[in-house]
Specification:
306 residues, 5 helices, alpha+beta, 7-stranded antiparallel beta sheet
């Protein structure tokens, strides 16, 4: 199965970008190859199951069905009812994530499909470059020119945020290089200036799930157990088993995405724990800025020195 993919950073808050792309019938407004579009059967564009029928400027006719629309997570998924290309089993998803450090947006678009024998890789490249990347580049130009405002009354998360701390940043280095540094569960002491004496208890490998790292964060002595490690999603998670701080059930971890438009990296770091509301007044901002954001910043600094 082929996978087409393109991602970029858009210089507007995620609520603003979502207001531009959420409309399943709005492709002619921001996709340069689309001439006109309509939703069949008079349905609204946010009715899951609706079909958009559109024509490209070169005369092609395409029909796509909305399969998922998620306002809470800024994403939608659709398939081909009448394909734009000679492929089968085409499923595409557009997703947005806030870049909390700059209040911009990480936008990714991917599709999985089957290519015919002899076409291996052909339409994967065409969809990635001429559809997804081209559309993102054009949307970036529209945002830069029109500077659209955030919709009135827009809120970032519908209800609670997905985690007690959900923070993100763009790092000016390729994702493979950032992951090579972050993946080492015992390596944080080499690039986070507040961490010392980090090592894996018992001398186990740092990629051993269930392994525990022992270290000092300033004067505090901590143990953290590796819960999962995934090279496919470039992510890992861990839990604290020893800490001087007033929290319990602490689980945290980063995930990385490639920014294909400029070969940089988008990273998200999340954390959840139980603590008193009074303690959280200090724990939440300190963890976000002095642990997660500082980790991403110091990794970027380390890589840019090379």
């Amino acid at each position: 199965m082929a996978r087409a993919y393109a991602s970029t950073i858009l210089k507007a808050p995620v609520e603003t970008v979502w207001s531009l792309v959420r409309d399943f019938n709005a492709l002619p407004k921001w996709a340069p190859a689309i001439a006109r579009s309509k939703i069949e059967d008079g349905l609204d564009a946010d009715v899951v199951g609706c079909v958009r029928s559109f024509y490209t400027k070169d005369g092609g006719h395409v029909r796509e069905r909305l399969l998922t629309l998620d306002d809470a997570n800024y994403t939608f998924t659709y398939n081909f009812e009448k394909p734009a290309f000679p492929v089968k089993n085409y499923i595409a998803t557009l997703r947005l994530y806030p870049v909390t450090q700059t209040d911009q947006t990480f936008a990714e678009w991917e599709a999985n499909f089957d290519e015919a024998p002899g076409d291996e890789g052909k339409y994967e490249k065409i969809v990635s470059r001429e559809v997804f990347a081209s559309n993102w580049a054009n949307l970036a130009k529209i945002i830069a020119a029109k500077k659209p405002k955030k919709p009135e009354g827009a809120v970032r998360w519908k209800g609670y945020a997905p985690n007690k701390v959900w923070t993100s940043r763009v790092m000016r280095a390729p994702v493979e290089k950032v992951w090579a540094v972050i993946r080492d569960f015992a390596g944080m002491g080499a690039w986070h200036e507040d961490i010392t004496k980090m090592h894996m208890i018992g001398g186990v490998r740092s990629d051993k799930v269930s392994g525990v790292r022992d270290f000092y964060f300033g004067p505090g002595h901590l143990h953290e157990e590796l819960l999962h490690l995934c090279d496919r999603t470039r992510s890992f998670s861990y839990r604290i088993t020893k800490s001087p701080l007033p929290w319990i059930n602490y689980v945290s971890g980063p995930r990385l995405w490639p920014v294909t438009s400029n070969n940089t990296t988008f990273g998200v770091w999340t954390g959840d724990w139980d603590a008193s509301p009074q303690d959280d007044l200090t724990l939440i901002p300190n963890t976000e800025q002095n642990v997660y954001q500082k980790a991403f910043a110091t990794v970027e600094k380390k890589l840019r020195r090379k």
